[in-house]
Amino acid sequence: MVYRDDFNVSCQVCSRPLEKFRGENFTYSRCPGCQGIFIARAALETIWERLVKRPAPRVEWSDRAGERLCPECHAPMRAAKIREQAIDACAAHGYWFIKGRLMRLLAAG
Asked: What distance in Å separates the CA atoms of residue 54 and residue 23, rounded to the nearest whole number?
């Protein structure tokens, strides 16, 4: 379900406004343009444990800067990987997955 509650954040890839979605006990943001997804760590863990039925994989942090800013705090994100899938990550707020990457990770379990 899409909802808005003073949520006015733009996509760092294509500049379109992000849409915020609410699931059962978690929320995430998705860009309707490039289909990128920004999700908090706790929300990713909730989704992972429900769909894959085991704990979420570890995030491997890089010393390199990521390609975008955090949609929540606007600080530069850091490059990171989850199971060899490159992502941008904000330690305080969550992870940015380009189109299809989160679904591929979940499908691979």
From this structure: 19
